[in-house]
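stage 2 :: seqdesign
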């Protein structure tokens, strides 16, 4: 199913579609998995816990945020795919970030966990049939087909990897030489 087939489009989905482009869900998730594999662990370790601005998250917290929110989106996808009917509650990313222990974890550990979560996400979405993927998911002010949740996961990563690229990689002392 192509992105153009999305019928009900919450405003944030326009950004999702801009980031993922006109590709199939499986391809978007596979590309995102490849991008995780391509992370330069050595460079991320050199940056360590530096931030580009006071009170911004470290790369560790950004990776933990991606892991946490992917799990939340997958929970929402399961609820809708299985016809459970309950509307998932909202979650506060700032509270979750503040209460994470991401800065105590190694970059390798976080990247490996993100890889495992993404592989699990891919398998979950591959297990859904077309009817499930077209299920209308309604929560908060949003309504979208289930497959858009998978695209949101891929776009969320693209967004944060762009932030890392633009704002954190310049903090690498070795990239300045």
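stage 2 :: out
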């Amino acid at each position: 199913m192509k992105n153009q087939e999305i019928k009900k489009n919450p405003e944030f989905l326009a950004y999702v579609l801009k980031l993922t482009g006109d590709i199939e869900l499986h391809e978007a998730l596979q590309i995102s998995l490849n991008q995780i594999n391509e992370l330069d662990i050595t460079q991320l370790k050199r940056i360590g816990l530096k931030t580009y601005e006071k009170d911004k998250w470290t790369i560790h917290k950004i990776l933990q945020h991606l892991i946490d929110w992917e799990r939340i989106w997958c929970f929402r996808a399961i609820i809708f795919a299985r016809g459970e009917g309950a509307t998932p509650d909202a979650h506060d990313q700032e509270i979750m970030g503040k209460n994470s222990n991401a800065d105590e974890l190694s970059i390798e550990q976080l990247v490996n966990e993100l890889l495992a979560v993404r592989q699990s996400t891919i398998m979950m979405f591959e297990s859904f049939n077309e009817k499930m993927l077209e299920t209308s998911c309604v929560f908060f002010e949003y309504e979208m087909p289930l497959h858009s949740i998978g695209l949101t996961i891929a776009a969320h990563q693209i967004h944060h990897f762009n932030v890392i690229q633009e704002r954190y990689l310049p903090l690498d002392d070795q990239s300045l030489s």
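stage 3 :: structure notes
- Residues 3-176 form a domain with the Four Helix Bundle (Hemerythrin (Met), subunit A) fold (CATH 1.20.120.450).
- Strands lie at 136-139, 142-145.
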